[in-house]
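CORE FACILITY INTAKE
Project code: CF-77B
Contact: R.S. (postdoc)
Sample description: multi-component assembly, two entities in total
Requested service: structural model of the whole complex
Turnaround: standard
Below are the sequence entries exactly as provided by the requester. Do not edit them.
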Amino acid sequence: MEENDVPTYASLTPANPTIINGYAGIDLQSGQLTTQQTVMNDSDQTVVNQMNMVNTVAVANVGTGMQTVSAPPMTPVVSSPVVTQQSTPEPCTEAPVESTPVERNTLIAVLQFLKKNNFKSTEDQLRQDSNFFEDVEDSKAGIGGDAEVSSVLSAYKNEGDPAEYYDAYMSLQAFVEKSLDAYKHEVSLVLYPVFVHMYLELVYNGHEEVSKAFLQKLGPLQEDYYQEDVHKLSLVTSRDHMTGYQIMDNFRSSQFTIRMSRDTYSHLKRYLTERGTGPVPRIVHDRLCLELYEGVPRTRSQVLASAGAQEGEAAKQFNKIKVFYGLLKEPELPNLAMEEEEGEEEGDKPKKKKPKKDSLQKSKKNDPNAPPINRIPLPELRDIDKLEKAKAFRDQMKRITLNKDTLPSICFYTFLNASGNITTIDITDDSSILAYGTADSQIRIQSITPGKLRCMKTSEQLSDIDKDADDVLVRMMDDRTAEPVRTLLGHSGPVYSCCFSPDRNLLLTAGEDGTIRLWSLQTWTCLVVYKGHVFAVWDVVFSPHGYYFASGGHDRTGRLWATDHHQPLRIFAGHFSDVDVVQFHPNSNYVATGSSDRSIRIWDNHHGNCVRVFTGHKDSIYCLAFSPCGRFLASAGSDKRIIVWDMAQSSMVTEMVSHTSTIYTISFSRDGNILASGGLDNCVKLWDFGRVLEDNHEDDINITHSADVKREDSLLLGSFPTKSTPILATHFTRRNVLLVSGPFEG
Amino acid sequence: MSEDILLSSLTFPTESVKVIAESIGISPLGDDVSKELAEEATFRLKVLIQDGMKFMHHGKRKRFCTSDFDHVLKMKNVEPLYGLHSIEHIPFRFASGGGRELHFIEDKELEINDMVSAPTPRLPLQIAIKPHWLAIEGIQPTIPENPPPINKDTQKKDAVDPAAKLSAQDTKDQKHIHGRGMKSIETVKVKQLATHELSAEQQLYYKEITEACVGSDEPKRGEALHSLAFDPGLHQMVPRLCTFIAEGIRVNVVQKNLALLIYLMRMAKALLDNQTLYLEKYMHELVPSVMTCIVSRQLCMKPDMDNHWALRDFAARLISQICKNYNTTTNGLQTRITRVFSRCLNTDRTPLSSVYGAVAGLSELGSEVAKVFVLPKLRALSDKIEQCMEGTNAYDKNAAAHIKGLLLKTVAPVLKTLRNPPDSVADYKMEFGYLGPQLQMAVVKARQAPPPPTTTLAAPIRAIAPTATRIIQQGTMSSMGGIGPRTVVVNKPSSSGMSSQQPGQKVIIMTSRPATPSQTVTTETVGGVVKTSVVSAGSSGASNLTTVTVNPSTLGGSIAGQISQAALASSTISQGGSQKPTKYLVVTGSNGPIKTEVKEETEPNLQPPMDIS
């Protein structure tokens, strides 16, 4: 393979060996920013945006005006990309993350960007901060810029005979067909990327008719889950179309990763050597990242399980980084004893108290997999939080333990007169308030308990209150303003996500207008508008500890924010398409993002790096949920399947298939034994997650590569259809009653 | 797949580009230019739609709407198309002319004054949240908010093709055995006779509902009927409820208890109205019950006082509802029902109350049925009415008046369409005799006014003399019934209701046992339809009227389903003179095999019994 050196193609590949994949996304965005600038009058904001794009984030400069939490926020850092792309022709099995050169290169790239855009002061600041005073040449060869785009595209320039492509592909296919069954399935992975790049070369070189025929003949032969991409590709019929089209950008700027066993590789290599020079060896050489492993080649089902993402498979070395998936130690609650006494007053028998204590002690024990408590600064518990925790604890004591014999009760909140209008629903952790966003940019908050929604008194009235009174919190609120429903207006487009803070005093919403808004649920006003995302924001979620929140949007980035900073603390760039869903790990140290590029990434909030990439979904991912134990992640989306991932082993644990339409919500029961899911097929389904855990413990094999993924429909415990009401939200109360909600489409 | 290819090959037509260019004043647009533009437009549009899909997905919708397109335009930094919001589907119009074909969207010019003066549109309804239990500890309660546990399609499939369930179960069982990797342990499933048990709650529900339906508390009855008509998940109790209705009708026809008959009919109506039930399995109980209430000779103790006409009207509407919902080519429901009615009209000695029922039933089945079956009989009916009106019997007079009223109401719209104006009294008189002039008036009136909606004519007029109602059959058919051969009788396979004009042809028999010795059953299959003719061999030439009544009503629900079709048409009738002794074929079979016996009764002045229970 290395013998077939075709310099024109390889040397121009955009895959900069040191730069994060995510830059692919970024350089597109910065290209578009110039137009964005004309739209937004607020040029300051644009500057901010641009800076965000490159992960520089000079948040240190920004005054932290409204520090409400005593804990210091994380020091903003440059999110150094962890991904090192293999530019070496020999596919390697190991790639130690070289931290220093990577950071240096990133720094250079950032400085280039700043220089190019004339951000002099920021540049100086950065140089000072990082003690980096080398000269940076202009970003001609670097990232961004139109020159870059054209050079990338010229990689497709080739004088080859267009007719040769079809034959070459057919020969490759024949080779795959004739391969031994052992190798066949792994080798077949090569077909799709080769097909794509052949087509793009044809298009780039202007062989319109040939390319059309090529696609028509071979497109339908690709795997089912690639058909959508093939369809998208089929739109590209001329060289002009190749710039600024998302899927194109992905293909041209990244290498398609394929994992195969060493045996399979040598098998493939023999074939490629035989072919000599031709489009197939060249493309395999330049465009594919072959990751080898020792061992037995995988079977078809194993190959299928992890295939499907736009970037190919996840390279193994991504997923080797240790993840602290354990839960944080529960803080001491001094008033717990008091609470227990109260419990006794309520009539709890002393017998029941024993297991109480045990479970209490258990949660106090240190989890070996837990991150240090101060790994990221967390807000200190206020009195009100402690009260809340105690209340939650009491509820927890009364919780029913669910298993396959004791299924939960499901309460369905149906929205009437709202067909096609409801876009997002969230329920507070204590299940007392429900918020929903509508397509006509309203946010409405409704109490689903007898408790009414009250407004805080005016400042004059507040000053009259005795601050030492026990019921000061109650006195603060004005009883005359009690209402069951309240409306918040502010967004200028559909609201795509809303999320309550854990203390129920704040609400975050995000929408099509690209802003995230923080609302106070005491004064019922908007507190902050976070402008950072360039386009629509699809999802926003509060950290389980409050203070931090994460968002994801059409600009292909996930972002980590703190409520008192109007700039993001971290930008998670790396996805190849929209970030459709974000979710916090229960210990607040990690954020998981799911994307339309059909992969899931887990990011470390501490340094902003991607620590896991999971591939295997065959379509966009719309919901994520961490198991209460913190080790497992469940994901689901348009491909109608729920996949459970193991954070510790970085592997797929199981796949649950039964839904017949897009899944929009999944959630774990509080004890982690049941997984509930729902979506557009108007059906709530319950899955036996307890058994997944059991099986997993039983096996406990050291999965080096492809585990045999169990696809069991026997995990399905129950299926509860509704009357033409899609399910948009599932939520387990603290006592394990399942609350489900959706708009009636009658 | 094929759709994908179709979509990817869709392109923006060059003609459209030219038309658009023309509309903005660039008239000569070269072919190559327009081709280039069309290709570009295709690409841009498809990209926009692809990205717009994201907005659709995040809006949690299955349908792409105009606002999605606006948002994606905004995202691409293109000015959105303002004012193109539409909640409803906009039809794409087509026009051709001048050698060109055009698709366009109708864009009417609106008068601003009209818009200003128009009343403001109604505010959209406020979004409301309504909670209910989707499941309680893993069990879905059958409340109106939840979908029925077994949907109508499944019930229908079950009724039409019971074998499908069996095979599905088989494969499941096999799969189970394989999956276990067990050595071949063959389990033979013995199906219990009574596999169907109601839970305690269901039994209580059944008790409450039936008591309320026939009790004296009217509001409670209303609630009970509402529950029957709207509650999902009744399917388990349907066999019991149908049996209740059938038994009740049988007993109360004998007792001539009009009130109870009405209650039971309302119950049947409620069940038929329930959208979650598919009742084909229970037609064998419902149809005879309803038919009884239409054509029975006597339905109440005091026919001169009580308004049994309303019950007949009500039941007639029910039967038409049944026909509409459950008539299939296999069960030939409408054919059989029509046949029963038209036989009533064809027999001279049918009591007037039965004639009324038959006319009501036929006319409810639609104008086409009325045209074919009622119109030819109009003259004869007219004579009969005249005879009764001029007679001295007050009952007869009253009944004749009812029939007259009914005929005028139902026949006039039919005549209106058949005859051309002018309507001369003489013509009508000649053709229809006594009723002629009134019919003429009614037709003229009908021509002037739009046809009124059919309403129940419930005039409290006295009825005619009672004649003995005959309930012939008692007893039950055991589960053996399902084993006997089924004979499905269809005279003419495809034409429903039109075929049975000649009296001699009308022989329907459907038993679950081999035919009685006195009958010869010939079966032939024509085009997938089993055609069986039963020839009554009682007395050759002038055979007697024979009624076979099969009553499987006391069977358990699951078994009732099996024999439903077999027992559906429960009347075998042949034509004969009234002087001859009437033969009754009585089928009994309580707890044992069915016994069939032929009873002969000789009554000198016998009216042919019309009752079908």
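Facility notes:
- DSSP finds 21 helices and 32 strands in chain A.
- The longest strand of chain A covers residues 410-416.
Invoice: internal transfer
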